[in-house]
Write a structure and sequence with these properties.
It contains eight helices and 20 strands. The protein is of the alpha/beta class. 45% of the residues are buried. It has two domains: 218 residues, TIM Barrel, CATH 3.20.20.80; 105 residues, Immunoglobulin-like (Sandwich), CATH 2.60.40. An eight-stranded parallel barrel has the order 5-6-7-8-9-10-11-12. Strands 14-20-19-16-17 form a five-stranded mixed sheet, with no helix packed on it. The protein is globular and about 70 Å long. A hairpin with a 2-residue loop joins strand 2 and strand 3. The longest helix is centred in the first third of the chain and has 18 residues. Helix 3 runs parallel beside helix 4 and helix 7 runs parallel beside helix 8.
Length: 429
């Protein structure tokens, strides 16, 4: 990274104001003070309490979030996102999509087209006050596919092109939890103003990754959340074990406190995902549940992880909390249960509620996911088996005729806008 003193300056006329070093310029800068790094927007410091995605930004803002992140977009879609930002008093880290295919970065026609597209974005939004940073690419090095000098040099070229046009906003890239990629960024992309890193189960080691790197600038944790499906225990038939929503709530709070807020080089984060997506399951990375799935009586309710984020962002105890899931089992077995085809079995979930709200239980069986992807690419929702059941008690009776691998989902609603979740993979023999 190229520094000018202690500042990376991207304002219209950013300068040190005398010996005190107070930034009075317009625009967005990053500044190091006493060993800690800070984002400044129009001269005011802002710690990034962000969310990944554009879903329910009203809830995010009300709970203490001040920014959201996107992964790409056209001029038209970015304009819509900026309208959302203004309506909810939030800032945007606007993504610029790049491929993970290393061969693309040698394609002169593609390079020329990409440069022109990025120049158009920079020209169109160079004065927008809701954007605070551009994010060039997301995990292009994943599985070492584009972790090359050519690819990172092109990222740096795009950063230079943006800065020729846009003097207001920061420019960055986003890597996965991949120390080798950080070394490549330090060597081949020195014109970036900060680095974003996505990290899940290994997030407590992010501080060491940066401390031991040739890269010496600041960073944001641009995706983080529960333990990933690639990091968790599997069943004998290779089904990953998902944390319950209560286990997720606990680790969200711990990871924010001990990994994000604890490192002075970290300028904030974007929790993932402030919405819902299918990735191995419909609940794994989601702070909200599904909405409008046929036969499933869910309406995008908040999970306990939303409660967690309100707690860490506002430093206050939420007025309403979600049901607390202590465990889920089939026929009393919490791991690798096996049942007989055509024979009824019992699913149970152990739940308490701090406010003693009346609880409703929704049960669904899906086939274990077989069409999967990496890097957050699209996955279809697995097929449902049988009918969704709703009960007033914490148990359900189910029978499945066809042998195979399945997953039982429990959704516990408290009637206040919260839903807690748990699921268990099982085999039918």
């Amino acid at each position: 990274m190229k520094f000018k003193g202690l500042f990376i300056t991207l304002g219209l006329s950013a300068m040190l104001a005398g010996c005190g070093g107070t930034a009075m310029n317009e625009g967005v800068t990053v500044r190091q003070e006493g060993g800690a790094w800070h984002v400044y927007i129009d001269g005011r410091p802002m710690y990034i309490n962000g969310v990944g995605g554009t879903n329910r930004l009203d809830v995010a803002s009300a709970n203490g979030a001040n920014a959201f992140r996107t992964w790409g977009g056209s001029v038209e879609s970015i304009q819509k996102d900026l309208e959302l930002a203004r309506a909810n008093h939030m800032y945007v880290m606007q993504g610029i999509g790049l491929p993970k295919d290393s061969t693309k970065y040698h394609d002169e026609a593609w390079r020329k087209q990409t440069i022109e597209e990025v120049q158009l974005l920079a020209q169109t939004f160079k004065n927008d006050t809701s954007i605070f940073a551009w994010g060039i690419g997301n995990e292009i090095e994943l599985d070492n596919r584009a972790n090359t000098a050519t690819a990172w040099s092109f990222v740096n070229l795009l950063a230079q092109e943006i800065k020729k046009i846009d003097k207001r906003h920061l420019v960055s890239t986003v890597i996965s939890h991949h120390p080798d990629a950080l070394e490549m960024v330090a060597k081949y992309a020195p014109d970036l103003d900060f680095v974003g890193i996505n990290s899940y189960g290994d997030i407590l080691n992010v501080k060491n990754v940066f401390a031991n790197s040739a890269y010496k600038g600041p960073y944001l944790i641009t995706e983080w959340g529960p333990t990933g499906w690639w990091e968790t225990k599997n069943t004998e038939w290779k089904a990953p074990i998902e944390q319950t929503s209560e286990e997720k709530r606990i680790v969200y709070e711990e990871r924010y406190t001990n990994a994000i807020a604890a490192d002075p080089r970290c300028m904030g984060s974007f929790v993932f995902l402030w919405g819902q997506k299918e990735e191995r399951t419909p609940t794994w990375f989601c702070l909200f549940v599904e909405d409008d799935v046929e036969g499933l009586p869910l309406k995008g309710e908040k999970t306990p992880m939303v409660e967690a984020m309100e707690r860490v962002w506002t430093k206050q105890e939420p007025a309403q909390t979600a049901p607390v899931v202590h465990g889920i089992a089939i026929n009393g077995i919490p791991f690798e249960p096996r049942v007989k085809a055509g024979r009824a079995f019992e699913g149970t979930v152990d739940v308490t509620d701090r406010e003693n709200d009346k609880l409703t239980y929704v049960w669904e069986v899906l086939k274990e996911a077989t069409i999967t992807a990496t890097g957050g690419a699209y996955e279809p929702r697995p097929d449902r088996v049988g009918e969704v059941q709703t009960t007033d008690a914490n148990k359900v009776s189910i029978a499945i005729a066809e042998p195979g691998y399945y997953r039982l989902y429990a959704y516990i609603l408290d009637g206040t806008g919260f839903v807690s979740t748990a699921n268990i993979p099982f085999a039918v023999e």
